[in-house]
UniProtKB/TrEMBL annotation:
Entry-linked SUPFAM superfamilies: Homeodomain-like
An example Gene Ontology molecular-function term: transcription cis-regulatory region binding
The keyword DNA-binding belongs to this UniProt entry's keyword annotation: yes
Pfam families: TetR_N
Keyword check for Cell wall biogenesis/degradation: no
Keywords assigned: DNA-binding, Transcription, Transcription regulation
UniProt organism field: freshwater metagenome
Protein name: Unannotated protein
């Protein structure tokens, strides 16, 4: 029985249904706070206030818990945040389905809304209540949390009422830069879905079909699809780069204005250079001068790309390297030290190779065209393995200080060198502008998980006006 079948089998009533809701809430909390590595039957049981037995009876492994969490909480939360994002920029498409199935506790919902209406607060929670939960107590709790959250951000409703604007867009992007538990959990599950077919199938069927429709390259209005794809990529990149120093304090309004201007003033699609990013074809090419070490580093990344960091054992790394497990511990005190070193060496090579590739195209065709080509290359279907490894490195850096230093240290060094060569280097700009550049670089590698055909979009219709603006 697959993880999807385990989750989708008929649920028993009463206390077991309530346990399901508690377990799913606990899975989300553990994912948000400890990451995928923290999700075990024992940790989820503790967070849910249950013994391990009912958790394991209902969800026999962590992948089944991940599938359930995505279906019940994480996927709907991500979809809702993305829809808010598109609406804030005037990019929603009324022709695409937006309805969600009603939940089984409509009477409770009506009573709650009536009480809030009588208190003059109902307007604050319109559109905020979840509609597909099975536990009335959990639904009431989440509804009250939504009401309190909305009351603390009462201006959001006025932003919505006023229509698309830089302020509303900045607010919607801020939900990804300063995410709640469900979006933090979404970041974890999006990345690790590369390592489990059941979770990948669930992500694809629950959210990706809608994102793929928003960003489809052969639709009636491909220019709008480009804007959606670019904006969603920025949001997903903000979600993954949220631990970069100073990121949480950024004011996003100026960047939101630039985006809206570019979306309104798109250029005509150009025939993009067919230049191939050949350095991505051999992104695991280590050259330390030590053949055994090169093989070990490459084998580490290949195994991580196959099963994820947590699934990669030192024995499997040894086999993937064509060496023994003993070589791992002869060279490194632990698996994490090996992974940190492999990541450091790979970043030092790839950050610079990416910049050289971009500069070479920009020198001939301009920065806007160069960025469009880079996006196309990073989203190529044949680079799924590259994206899986890169995103796993980013995900791990959310939770490990050493990897975070590697992840962002190389970037900061590259920025410093570029500014030393050209003090007016446009990519640096303001701190928010630089961070948006970082976010789009990460986000375009996430988008193919949700919209595999987005690599065919004419991104230059947005990147050129952004560069010229």
């Amino acid at each position: 029985m697959t993880s999807v079948e385990v989750v989708e089998r008929r649920r028993p009533p009463s206390s077991l249904v309530r346990n399901d809701a508690r377990i799913m809430g606990a899975v989300v909390a553990v994912l948000a706070d400890a990451g995928w590595a923290g999700v075990t039957v024992a940790s989820v049981a503790r967070a849910a206030g249950l013994s391990p037995r009912p958790v394991q009876d209902r969800f026999p492994d962590r992948w089944a818990m991940a599938v359930g969490a995505w279906q019940q909480q994480v996927g709907p939360a991500l979809e809702g945040a993305l829809l808010e994002l598109l609406e804030s920029a005037g990019l929603e498409d009324d022709r695409l389905p937006r309805d969600r199935p009603a939940g089984p506790v409509l009477q409770l919902r009506a009573a709650l809304e009536s009480a809030l209406d009588a208190a003059g607060l109902r307007h604050l929670i319109v559109g905020q209540l979840p509609e597909d939960l099975d536990d009335p107590l959990l639904e009431m709790n989440l509804a009250l949390e939504s009401a309190l959250d909305a009351a603390g951000r009462a201006d959001l409703m006025s932003l919505r009422a006023a229509g698309p604007s830089a302020d509303w867009l900045a607010n919607a992007l801020g939900a990804f830069l300063r995410p709640g538990a469900e979006l933090r959990a979404a970041a974890e599950l999006l990345v690790v879905s590369a390592f489990n077919d059941d979770l990948a199938e669930t992500v694809g069927s629950e959210v990706a079909h809608r994102v793929a429709a928003w960003c489809h390259p052969t639709g009636e209005h491909p220019e709008a699809a480009v804007s959606r794809a670019y904006l969603i990529s920025i949001a997903l990149g903000l979600l993954l780069s949220r631990t970069r120093q100073g990121a949480a304090d950024l004011d996003l309004r100026d960047e939101a204005r630039h985006l809206l201007d570019a979306f309104k003033n798109q250029s005509k699609p150009a025939v993009l250079p067919a230049t191939r990013a050949e350095h991505l074809d051999d992104f695991l090419g280590f050259d330390t001068g030590d053949a055994s070490l090169d093989a070990l580093l490459r084998g580490t990344m290949e195994e991580v790309g196959r099963v994820g960091y947590e699934g990669a054992t030192t024995a499997a790394i040894g086999r993937a390297s064509g060496r023994s497990e003993g070589l791992v511990f002869a060279r490194y005190p632990s698996k994490v030290e090996l992974f940190v070193d492999a990541t450091r060496r790979q970043h030092a090579r790839n950050w610079r190779a990416n910049e050289v590739f971009h500069q070479g195209i920009a020198a001939v065709h301009g920065p806007g065209i160069a960025e469009a080509v880079v996006i196309r290359e990073f989203q190529r279907p044949d680079l799924r393995g590259y994206r899986a490894i890169s995103l796993e490195q980013v995900r791990m850096a959310l939770h490990d200080e050493r990897l975070r230093e590697v992840q962002w240290g190389e970037l900061e060094l590259l920025v410093a060198q570029a500014l030393a060569e050209d003090p007016n280097w446009a990519a640096a700009g303001t701190p928010a502008h630089l961070h948006f550049s970082v976010a789009i670089g990460l986000g375009v590698t996430v988008l193919p998980i949700l919209a595999p055909e987005a690599w065919l979009l004419p991104y230059d219709v947005v990147t050129v006006p952004l560069d010229e603006g």
